[in-house]
Amino acid sequence: MGADAADAAARASASESVSVRLGKLEEVERSESEEIGLRVFVGRRSASISTSDFAPEGLRALAERAVEMARLAPEDPYGGLAPADALFAGDAPDLQLNDGAEPGPADLRAAALASEDAARAVAGVTNSNGGSAAAARSVFGLVTSSGFARAHAGGSHTLSASVVAGEGSEKQTDYAYRTQRHLADLPAPEGIGREAGERAVRKVGSGSLPSGKMPVVFDPRVGGGILGHLLGAMSAPAIARKASFLLGREDEQLFDTAITIAEDPHRLRGLRSRHYDGEGVPSCPRALVEQGKVTGWMTNVASAAQLDLALTGHASRGAGGSPGIAPANVFMHAGALSVAELIADIEDGVFVTDLFGQGVNLVTGDYSRGASGLRIRNGELAGPVAEITIAGTLPEMFRALVPANDLAFERGIDVPTFRIDGMSVAGE
Hints:
- Residues 6-70 form the Metalloprotease TldD/E N-terminal domain.
- By secondary structure, this protein is of the alpha+beta class.
- Helices cover 20% and strands 38% of the residues.
- The protein contains 8 helices and 19 strands.
- It has a 6-stranded antiparallel sheet. A 5-stranded mixed barrel has the order 7-14-15-16-19.
- The longest helix is centred in the first third of the chain and has 17 residues, at 56-72.
- The mean pLDDT is 96.
């Protein structure tokens, strides 16, 4: 129909979940979706459009509309497809992203009940928000007119529980969950439930603490968010827009020289594993931060062209819209100290288990979040604290960061427990 170049991305998914509450079935849900997105280029002009109509006449109408839209679009000097010599080619070893297991509603219900029952059995738990179990599978295909044509499938299994502890004004809620590619890799439902119950109970009787500068220790459950802010600032589109606090800090010692942050897109059964990115470019294991310094920006085709950089295999693609940026299986290397050793010399500090609010500015690096957790007194975890605010700047926080040795691969962005001294804490 006159397009000079085009790519098409298709995604389909199906999931089934069962939720229970107080030992009774609450909800059984099944969902299926499929969508295809077409992006076309007419000269330096482009347009993207998507549909869930896979009929031949529907796809033909999609193509016709996309080309008409592209002809009316403004010129973009940087848009385009990945060139043929930059595309993933050759064999794609099995990353074991789908175990083929399809537990039925009865299996999911039994797992959800076991998780909730274990949580409710924890002394001090007074109510339940429920337990749930889910299984999902998906397939993604990408074809480009520059010569790429591949697809891959994946699956996941999830268990969760959320309960309430305490009475009246002392009520506290917490949760636990795990997602794995293979059902056999999930912890036992009883372990998930017990973790949820224990987390809720230890929040009861929360107080505050005096305001001031002090060490803040981040639980891995929330520490990954700090890494997420770094990754957002390392995206080449943010650098190109001059919307990153890392701009001009390419050679700066951001972290201690002992800190390494790596990416392993080829990890077997990894939650974000892949052989190629959303534009067909190979995804490769690499260090994103090495000896405390960033190793470069994460690019897609448009940002690489704008900044005159190489493609790094970090493009992300939904069915519609232009590609964004997404890393795969990022983790911070573990440190040498146990968590007990990490906090042993803290006279007064806070161990953060929950963060709230959106007070992070990736342009300036300013950081301010509501938090709750446990007070640290004389090297020991003490009573629960809530309704506090922790603040600092991300560059200062990175420089002060010290990791423990308890790294576990559970989330897709994984960190050990880590400590940051000198943060501002607002309490009483």
